């Protein structure tokens, strides 16, 4: 266990860099390499991808693998994978399981079975290999044997899990009763992009805590964390039973009732990524990007079938058009509003919510004036910032002269502002005012930085914990902590601290790997403090 | 010292009769002063009569035209009620001057003319705009260095109604946008030759300044994007789109629904506008249209003439330099409105037939311009004089096929003529005699009429007592007797050109010195004129402002000294090829308002003398010099003069001997035929 824990700690230090992780793991986990008999131990450094391929193939199985992998000292990975699978937009799950929960498909079943067969064969080969190697003299035989055992156990568990899940898909009505079994997680995986594990636990439409929570409860101590996370997941799953693509957007003036209104909770809206790699845990905003990313994990992801846009066949079934409602009460985009105007896609919801109901926490680094709540807006702005030379007296800048003149024609009292280099003191005061305002804003940003960090979300909460326990500010600000997910997570929680304070630690962000940072084998305690 | 003494003597005189003036109220003196407008010296003299006159004149004066900016503070102190300041004579107006003016005049200032001054910037304009709340008119034409920021400062003048920005090359849409937002009461704005101003600025102007009456957009790179908003201006009367090449027929289609108030439309040099665009005028906006200028535009065809047929109020049309067709001109002849003014100058295709068919119905024509219609003959003149008897202006320069007999008809039939231009025609004494029957004649141009002699010109003096302008350029048949007849008979003469009338001597000038209103005198190439004659002019014609004695080789320094003493209004002088030397040039420095000086090929001029003269004439704004002086004088001198507001033009022409007049004309005709 010591070894495992150490490894675990190491792994957590590099949460999102899969290669490092596997590099470390590989030395400890030779059995993975034995998938391919010709590989020697010296080569085990590189085949990490292969290993992952072996583990990863079925995203929905990750959860299932997880318990065993906790044993095989891959907790971090599994942890990420869990989230990934949970968060996966249904359509991204091109794997057979992706469809199984929706309704029964013989082809999928066949695929699953053949896959299982293949998997069993692989395991068989592996065992053969281990048997064959028994005679060879190796550096650390005991350790190796233990690892081999773990690997086999893991694979077996995976096979069993998939078998159960395959069987479970035959019984859709049992879905919810099977909550204690892993397939439900698989179902979670199907539940569309809307299914985002960012529940804070305060708003509860339908709580599906049972599935993850109970399943993982019997796992190693680390899974407590996951159970927490699962427990807090609140989601109106029923609404998303028949998840569909949002591609088909009809005209705006849909008669009320002609479409289905879905309302995501704000935590779900604000979750940074909706698509996660089951192998390395990297998060993506688009399924297509994930699929591109998956190619790096093995040849099986390079098949046209794997790369194709998933889930087209399901569109044949008659479904209601989906429209989205903003969870913000009183908003025109909220379904309770008198003149409710639905949003077309989840992306629309996200952008709308951030733009309208969130702080504008991204400030342009060039002008220090413009603020945005959607990072894409900031990026778009930064591309043109400085080029906006057309300035109005109200301070608004325009990239095009005609836009400025349109603005001036529209508003009374606004007048074109002549650039400073030309004016001689006439526009001076106004500009100075702006400057000081900008600097103030910079101050504000710093302030909000700190404040959100303190309570903006679980991640940050964890960060704080780490900071407290270690007294090491550098780790607090170390790039590790600000790896992709974490960084995004932080930025996408521009809410004031009080909003989430009560639920901050129960909410686990996907990239919250750093909660175990240097705390060794007691991540839970740390987390639960 | 001398002035002081004069005042004292006047005062002593006044003291004797002081009681008489006490009966005159201030208002009455104001009315008297209103009539003292002819010569600025008059008012000066009046004010110097006594202290009370001085005070009254100071109170009365509303307009000020200072000669140099140095004395502006003192002058403004003296004249507290000045509402109009014309600074065109000041070579250099800085921000300081403008600040002084704005602080002195405050809200009494209503109008300021800064056209031609280049040295001010936004700060001066801002102080004007902020302090002079009642500023209504400002002319910034030719302020080529003026930038958007300065114009933006001007936008603080909220009550501005008239603004001229012609040739302000640096300003752009941004500056005009500021004006549009700031000066909402604008009624007139001229943006001629502001190439930086485009659709956006003009469009915003039209959106924001709804009171615009007059809009000059000549030579702007505008397209049809800004025209819709212009056509929505409710009160627009005068629209000038000259040389707007971006405007085409489609752009004008908006005229169908707007601009009902339009009275004058200038779309000259707009090559992309044809009858299609013009036909939209009849749709709606042409109801009040009085004048349309189509010069240098598309061919005057039947279609074009028909498209303008139904304009009920149309009085004036200018088709200068348009390709014309017979059908087109004939159709114009059938228009419902009766034209008052018609210009066909340089329409080479105008023939006797087309002109007569055009004029048949427009009998009420007052002004006709058929300059350079080289195909018309006696028949046309016969027809014109027959049908258009009410003509007041006839311009027919270089109608070379019109025979001398035709000019007799003009005098016989068109008695109301006030302006005649028969430059370069075959008119002879008989014709001139007939023309002189037009007793209202005020302007007569007889340049290059080689058939005219003293006999004909004597008739001018006998009959045309109202003559103001007489051009006898290269009328080589004229001598002193003709000129003296004119001088005796035309006391109101203001401008006379006797250039290259080589027989003219001093006696002509002595007789012309009786014309006290004379302000422009041109006697180029009259070798017999001497300083004596010039001195007579200088003494007699106090109004003299422009003097051209180029190639009067007999004039020397002796002529300059009386000129310097008496012609205090002289602004422009050309001394090239004369015998004036350093001394004469230096003496001209006493003419305080002398602005333009052309001194080419002065044999007696030394570099040091030139330098002294240039430094002494403080008001100079334009000096034409031989290029050789550029190297002979230190660069610093020119830099100093340029900083004072003077512009130098360097010429490198060889000295050319004068040609015989007949020979000159033949040469001219050769050149024209080559073209």
UniProtKB/TrEMBL annotation, chain A:
Keywords: Metal-binding, Nucleus, Repeat, Transcription, Transcription regulation, Zinc, Zinc-finger. The keyword Transferase does not apply. Residues 275-302 form the C2H2-type domain. It comes from the Eukaryota. Gene3D superfamilies: Classic Zinc Finger (3.30.160.60). It is found in: Nucleus. SUPFAM superfamilies: beta-beta-alpha zinc fingers. Residues 65-84, 231-257, 419-439 are annotated as: Disordered. GO terms for biological process: response to acidic pH; response to aluminum ion. InterPro entries: STOP1/2, zf-C2H2_STOP1/2_C, Znf-C2H2_STOP1/2_3rd, Znf_C2H2_sf, Znf_C2H2_type. It holds the Pfam family zf-C2H2_STOP2_3rd. Residues 65-82 have a biased composition (Polar residues). GO terms for molecular function: zinc ion binding. This is C2H2-type domain-containing protein. It comes from Prunus persica (Peach).
From TrEMBL, chain B:
This is F-box/LRR-repeat protein 15-like leucin rich repeat domain-containing protein. It comes from the Eukaryota. One of its GO terms (biological process) is SCF-dependent proteasomal ubiquitin-dependent protein catabolic process. Residues 131-275, 327-486 form the F-box/LRR-repeat protein 15-like leucin rich repeat domain. It holds the Pfam family LRR_6. Transmembrane segments: none annotated. CDD domains: F-box_AtTIR1-like. One of its GO terms (cellular component) is SCF ubiquitin ligase complex. PANTHER family: F-BOX_LRR-REPEAT PROTEIN 3, PARTNER OF PAIRED, ISOFORM B-RELATED. It comes from Prunus persica (Peach).
């Amino acid at each position: 266990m010591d070894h495992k824990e150490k490894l675990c700690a190491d792994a957590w230090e590099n949460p999102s860099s899969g290669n490092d992780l596997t590099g470390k793991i590989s030395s400890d986990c030779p059995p993975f390499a034995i998938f391919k008999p010709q590989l020697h131990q010296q080569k085990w450094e590189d085949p990490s991808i292969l290993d992952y391929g072996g583990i990863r193939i079925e995203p929905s199985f990750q959860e299932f693998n997880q318990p065993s992998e906790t044993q095989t000292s891959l907790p971090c990975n599994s942890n990420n994978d869990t989230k990934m699978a949970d968060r996966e937009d249904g359509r991204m799950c091109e794997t057979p399981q992706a469809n199984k929960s929706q309704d029964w498909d013989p082809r999928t079943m066949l695929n699953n079975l053949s896959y299982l067969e293949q998997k069993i064969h692989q395991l068989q080969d592996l065992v053969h290999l281990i048997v064959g190697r028994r005679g060879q003299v190796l550096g650390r035989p005991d350790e190796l044997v233990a690892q081999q055992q773990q690997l086999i156990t893991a694979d077996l568990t995976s096979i069993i899990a998939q078998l159960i899940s395959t069987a479970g898909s035959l019984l859709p009505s049992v879905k919810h009763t099977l909550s204690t079994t892993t397939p439900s997680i698989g179902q979670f995986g199907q539940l569309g992009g809307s299914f985002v594990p960012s529940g804070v636990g305060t708003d509860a439409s339908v709580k599906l805590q049972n599935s993850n929570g109970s399943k993982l409860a019997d796992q190693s101590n680390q899974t407590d964390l996951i159970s927490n996370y699962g427990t807090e997941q609140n989601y109106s799953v029923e609404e998303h039973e028949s998840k569909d693509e949002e591609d088909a957007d009809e005209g705006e003036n849909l008669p009320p009732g002609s479409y289905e209104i879905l309302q995501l909770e704000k935590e779900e809206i604000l979750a940074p990524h909706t698509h996660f790699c089951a192998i390395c845990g990297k998060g993506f905003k688009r399924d297509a990007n994930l699929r591109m990313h998956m190619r790096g994990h093995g040849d099986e992801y390079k098949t046209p079938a794997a790369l194709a846009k998933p889930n087209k066949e399901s569109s044949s079934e008659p479904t209601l058009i989906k429209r989205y409602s903003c969870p913000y009460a009183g908003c025109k985009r909220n379904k309770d509003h008198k003149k409710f105007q639905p949003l077309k896609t989840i992306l629309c919801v996200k952008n709308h919510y951030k733009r309208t109901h969130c702080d504008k926490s991204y400030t342009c680094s060039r002008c220090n004036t413009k603020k945005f709540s959607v990072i894409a807006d900031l990026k778009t702005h930064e591309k043109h910032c400085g080029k906006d030379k057309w300035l109005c007296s109200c301070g608004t800048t325009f990239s095009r002269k005609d836009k400025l003149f349109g603005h001036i024609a529209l508003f009374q009292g606004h007048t074109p502002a002549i650039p400073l280099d030309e004016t001689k003191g006439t526009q001076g005061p106004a500009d100075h005012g702006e400057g000081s305002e900008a600097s103030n804003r910079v101050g504000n940003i710093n302030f909000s930085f700190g404040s959100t960090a303190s309570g903006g979300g679980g991640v940050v909460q964890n960060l704080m914990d780490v900071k407290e326990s270690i007294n090491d500010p550098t780790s607090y600000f170390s790039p590790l902590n600000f790896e992709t997910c974490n960084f995004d997570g932080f930025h996408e929680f521009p809410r004031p601290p009080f909003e989430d304070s009560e639920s901050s630690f129960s909410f686990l962000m996907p990239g919250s790997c750093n909660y175990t940072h240097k705390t060794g084998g007691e991540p839970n305690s740390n987390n639960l403090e | 010292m001398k002035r002081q003494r004069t005042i004292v003597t006047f005062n002593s005189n006044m003291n004797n009769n002081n009681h008489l003036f006490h009966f005159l109220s201030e208002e009455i003196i104001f009315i008297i002063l209103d009539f003292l407008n002819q010569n600025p010296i008059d008012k000066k003299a009046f004010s110097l009569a006594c202290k009370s006159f001085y005070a009254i004149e100071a109170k009365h004066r509303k307009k000020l035209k200072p000669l140099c900016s140095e004395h502006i503070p003192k002058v403004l102190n003296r004249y507290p009620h000045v509402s109009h300041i014309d600074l065109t004579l000041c070579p250099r107006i800085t921000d300081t001057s403008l600040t002084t003016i704005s602080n002195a005049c405050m809200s009494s200032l209503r109008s300021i003319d800064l056209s031609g001054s280049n040295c001010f910037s936004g700060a001066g304009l801002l102080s004007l705009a902020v302090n002079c709340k009642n500023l209504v008119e400002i002319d910034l034409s030719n302020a080529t260095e003026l930038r958007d920021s300065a114009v933006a400062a001007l936008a603080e003048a909220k009550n501005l109604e008239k603004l001229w920005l012609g040739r302000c090359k640096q300003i752009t849409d941004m500056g005009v946008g500021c004006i549009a937002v700031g000066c909402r009461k604008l009624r007139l704005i001229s943006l001629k030759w502001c190439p930086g101003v485009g659709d956006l600025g003009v469009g915003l102007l039209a959106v924001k300044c709804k009171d615009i009456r007059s809009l000059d957009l000549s030579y702007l790179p505008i397209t049809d994007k800004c025209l819709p908003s212009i056509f929505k201006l409710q009160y627009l009367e005068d629209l000038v789109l000259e040389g707007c090449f971006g405007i085409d027929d489609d752009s004008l289609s908006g005229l169908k629904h707007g601009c009902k108030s339009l009275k004058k439309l200038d779309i000259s040099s707009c090559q992309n506008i044809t009858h299609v665009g013009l036909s939209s005028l009849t749709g709606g906006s042409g109801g009040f249209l009085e004048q349309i200028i189509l010069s240098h535009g598309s061919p005057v065809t039947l279609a074009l003439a028909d498209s303008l047929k139904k304009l009920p109020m149309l009085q004036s049309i200018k088709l200068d330099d348009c390709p014309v067709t017979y059908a087109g001109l004939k159709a114009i002849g059938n228009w419902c409105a009766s034209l008052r003014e018609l210009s066909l100058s340089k329409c080479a295709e105008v023939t006797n037939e087309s002109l007569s068919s055009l004029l048949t119905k427009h009998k009420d024509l007052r002004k006709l311009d058929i300059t350079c219609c080289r195909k018309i003959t006696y028949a046309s003149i016969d027809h014109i004089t027959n049908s258009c008897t009410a003509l007041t202006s006839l311009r027919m320069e270089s109608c070379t096929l019109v025979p001398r007999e035709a000019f007799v008809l003009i005098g016989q039939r068109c008695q109301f003529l006030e302006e005649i231009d028969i430059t370069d025609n075959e008119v002879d004494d008989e014709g001139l005699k007939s023309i002189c029957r037009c007793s209202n004649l005020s302007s007569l141009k007889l340049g290059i009429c080689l058939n005219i002699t003293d006999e004909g010109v004597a008739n001018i003096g006998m009959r045309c007592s109202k003559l103001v302008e007489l051009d006898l350029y290269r009328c080589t048949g004229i001598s002193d007797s003709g000129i003296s007849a004119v001088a005796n008979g035309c006391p109101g003469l203001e401008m006379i050109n006797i250039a290259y009338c080589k027989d003219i001597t001093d006696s002509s000038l002595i007789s012309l010195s009786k014309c006290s209103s004379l302000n422009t005198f041109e006697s180029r190439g009259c070798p017999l004129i001497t300083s004596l004659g010039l001195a007579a002019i200088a003494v007699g014609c106090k109004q003299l402002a422009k003097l051209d004695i180029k190639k009067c080789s007999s004039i020397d320094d002796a002529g300059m000294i009386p000129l310097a003493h008496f012609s205090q209004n002289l602004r422009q002088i050309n001394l090239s090829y004369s015998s004036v030397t350093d001394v004469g040039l230096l003496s001209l420095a006493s003419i305080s308002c002398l602005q333009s000086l052309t001194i080419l090929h002065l044999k007696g001029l030394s570099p040091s003398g030139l330098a002294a003269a240039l430094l002494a004439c403080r008001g100079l704004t334009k000096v034409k010099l031989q290029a050789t002086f550029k190297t002979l004088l230190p660069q610093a001198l020119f830099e100093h003069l340029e900083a004072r507001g003077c512009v130098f033009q360097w010429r490198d022409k060889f000295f050319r001997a004068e040609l015989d007049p007949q020979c000159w004309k033949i040469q001219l005709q050769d050149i024209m035929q080559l073209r």
